[in-house]
Amino acid sequence: MKDILTAPFMVEMIRTITNMYNHGWDERNGGNVSLMVNENEIAEYIDVSNTLREIPTGFNASDLAGKYFLVTGTGKYFKNVQYDPAKNMGLFRLNGDGTTAELLWGYSDGGKFTSELPAHLMSHTARLKVNLNNRVVMHCHPANLLAMTYVHSLEEREFTRTLWQMCTECIVVFPDGVNVLPWMLCGTNEIGAATAEKMKTARLVVWAQHGIYGAGADLDETFGLIETAEKASEIYMKIAHLPMKNTIKDEDLKVLAEAFKVEYRKGYLE
Ligand code: 2HA
Ligand code: ZN
Hints:
Blueprint: H1 8-22, E1 32-37, H2 39-42, E2 53-56, E3 68-72, H3 78-81, H4 85-88, E4 89-94, E5 100-106, H5 117-130, E6 136-140, H6 143-151, H7 156-166, H8 170-173, E7 178-181, H9 189-199, E8 204-207, E9 211-216, H10 219-239, H11 250-259
Helix pairs in contact: 5-9, 6-10, 7-10
Bound molecules: Dihydroxyacetone and zinc ion.
Dihydroxyacetone (2HA) binds next to loops.
């Protein structure tokens, strides 16, 4: 067997998580990432018939039965992932009814997956119904997005429109907009179900006064989504208290959408 730390998906996961930490999005044990991997991506690196431990998921994820996921560990710091990947992440397969994670690698100190597993797996299910190629769900705490949820309306159309107006690239990068959940208790099946419901119509879901969820086909796309939304929020937080002299008008946003051939969220422009 080859060394799993040399597997391309593992290298990319470690680089991405390190980059998230370096962006200041993941203080302490903040944030979590799940990456769906195909059996053929891991076959050279681990014996998939050798289950190390069985860990109950606490809910029914039967839509994802038999699928493999690389997921950050509960209580673990993104800061440390690069130095000890096997302690801070785990790779498991979901059993037949999705109620058990069959651990194949990682969580080496006896740990387990993130407390936000419900939000991750339920979001994977929701996004796979929209895009068969979805592989990633990512959660973190970017400061400007968080700050914006204290001072801006949480109404989704208004929140999305403000972000679109802050940088020219926004409507091109997330034409589906940003959905928003009010403050809720995290780590529960309830916030998981609510997040997944919001994921049906957008790849970005803000958790007010907490952080953001992103979903995408790969780690780069998902990181880029959050990076772009966070940049837009940063511009907003720099200018919100100043007299506004100019903006990107709806007619400009329409020209952009047409030029880049993206279908923006219906009804979000005048
Ligand atoms: O586990 O970010 O939402 C750390 C978190 C919880
Ligand atoms: Zn969080």
